[in-house]
Amino acid sequence: MALLEIQGLKTHFKTDDGWLRAGRDVDLSVDAGAVCAGGRGSRVAASPSRR
User: Fold this and answer.
1) Regarding beta strands 18-31 and 2-15, do their DSSP bridges make them parallel or antiparallel, or are they unpaired?
2) Cβ contacts of residue 13 below 8 Å, gap of 6+?
3) Would you place residue 15 in the very low, low, confident or very high pLDDT band (cuts 50, 70, 90)?
């Protein structure tokens, strides 16, 4: 059983030139006991789930 499941994640960043699409339709599944390295990618992916 997954501790966290995210389906269809879309991530965008606003830049001076407009919107940058950084991820589209990303599915994530984190099992209990999984270790997160804490790099930039994990922070960006987790950001929408904290809202």
Assistant:
1) antiparallel
2) 19, 20, 22
3) very high
